[in-house]
């Protein structure tokens, strides 16, 4: 065996050839200026269905995006086979900046937030007035998530033939949220869709609600017949609906009026990711009154300047009550 001394001549050392070639490694990623623009319609086990111009394209996320995930509503850049033909697969190489994000966690102790929808203009919170009974705490949580994520809320109350909407309207009237009231007959005949669509034209609207409230039935009445989804029923014993929508899906409104995103029915809406200090932005009539608040004020404590602001007549006391009810919703259960 040959031994080398302390002053070995480097030319004597055997150089092993590089089987991968001599091309230097680089961290510079391609810019993909020629990538096509698309919109994510749904995500299923790592495969994303995207709308590119007038056709749907199946795609996967490029490795260079790392852990960054694309969700329904994302605007993305794609390369590869964009024909949309069977057994073809494109590649998402860029996710564009988001204008809004609807996020939730499994519960208030869950550290992992889940982005449900990106780039939606508004959140339609669908609740039945009976069968199943309305859950105001869940509505409150959806409102907080909408205000935090930059979405405008819309309250849609169904099954008014079973119970009047007065109680819920009294509860949310001071929040000045636009609302629609429909009956089961109107849902089945399509009349409800015509009323709701007035609030949806030209916008991307995410629909959220717990199972059995008629959310998917309403969405089906809003979209072309060939795109309608399966609906379920309410269990007569438990009063709960059965999940029939298992993944979020963006669907075009009939005509060129906009998009609706049907999301799976929820039984909880965690807010572990929410910064309570951002909720005040949804109350522009109260926000000026926070200028004299102590540092890191929660707006629900004895030294909050909002109490004096409202007492001096600058805002309606009912609005302050509504703000504090929403801020406290993380501390309460999601029961009625």
Describe the SSE topology.
Elements: E1 36-44, E2 47-52, E3 55-61, E4 75-80, E5 90-95, E6 101-104, E7 114-118, E8 122-128, H1 136-149, E9 152-158, H2 166-172, E10 179-181, H3 184-189, H4 191-197, E11 203-208, H5 215-222, E12 249-252, E13 258-262, H6 306-311, H7 317-327
Parallel strand pairs: 3-5, 8-9, 8-11, 9-10, 11-13
Antiparallel strand pairs: 1-2, 1-4, 2-3, 4-5, 6-7, 12-13
Helix pairs in contact: 4-5
Concise summary:
The protein is of the alpha/beta class and 336 residues long. 18% of the residues lie in helices and 22% in strands. The strands form three sheets. Strands 10-9-8-11-13-12 form a six-stranded mixed sheet. It has a five-stranded mixed barrel with strand order 1-2-3-5-4.
Q: Please, could you describe this protein's structure?
A:
The protein has helices spanning 136-149, 166-172, 184-189, 191-197, 215-222, 306-311, 317-327, and strands spanning 36-44, 47-52, 55-61, 75-80, 90-95, 101-104, 114-118, 122-128, 152-158, 179-181, 203-208, 249-252, 258-262. By secondary structure, it is α/β, with parallel strands linked by helices. The strands form three sheets. The protein has a six-stranded mixed β-sheet with strand order 10-9-8-11-13-12. Strands 1-2-3-5-4 form a five-stranded mixed beta barrel. Strands 6-7 form a two-stranded antiparallel sheet. A hairpin with a 2-residue loop joins strand 2 (47-52) and strand 3 (55-61). Helix 4 packs across helix 5. The N and C termini lie far apart (83 Å).
